[in-house]
């Protein structure tokens, strides 16, 4: 076991592996930019799916779509493994280190899920995430204590959204990246971080809110994921303008993730 742990640690410290893993942030950034572009189109009355599935489908439709998706899958899978290594092998000497390890575990789950979504499209089995969200909600609601669990999940997503927004306002994301010494580049890094984190927070809060509403009303069809949340926002007073603002923010968050891929502190 000790040899296996040493081998895993050596692999996670490999410079080549780190470069590939960092590319996972760039892939996530690209998908957020595409989601933001689709959401912007929705704000102007066009159709589309403003979520990960819609973004991946957009990539798949390109001339070199399959090759592009395989590359994206590899980067996200590598990042998931890298973060899993950080979660397992990270230091345990303080509460701060424990928080970092828990954060790494969460990111490992997120990027593993993203890799799974990408490979499902490569294999021709990609699903509409709006329908998948509703089906998952329906399945969970039929289970014992499923409603309470759904409310907890929805509340957790909404709270995560609030945390994202607070990070944007307080600019605590700056701890994760190496800021440039050039003032113009530094302003860009901070600017896309502030706008991006706030917009991402709003989007997550809306997703969580719809999950809670679907559970409380026993209407699983209302749990429609990010795409349904953004389309619901469009139907509100001044909705198209609000949706356009969130869309621009999601594009900014995507740009921040690309910045993070290059300047992440380790």
From TrEMBL:
UniProt KW keywords: Membrane, Transmembrane, Transmembrane helix
Pfam families according to UniProt: DUF1206 (PF06724)
Annotated TM spans: 23-44, 64-82, 102-123, 143-169, 190-218, 238-259
Family matches, as InterPro entries: DUF1206 (IPR009597)
The protein, known as: Integral membrane protein
Residue ranges of every copy of the DUF1206 domain listed in the record: 23-89, 104-170, 195-261
Keyword Transport (UniProt): no
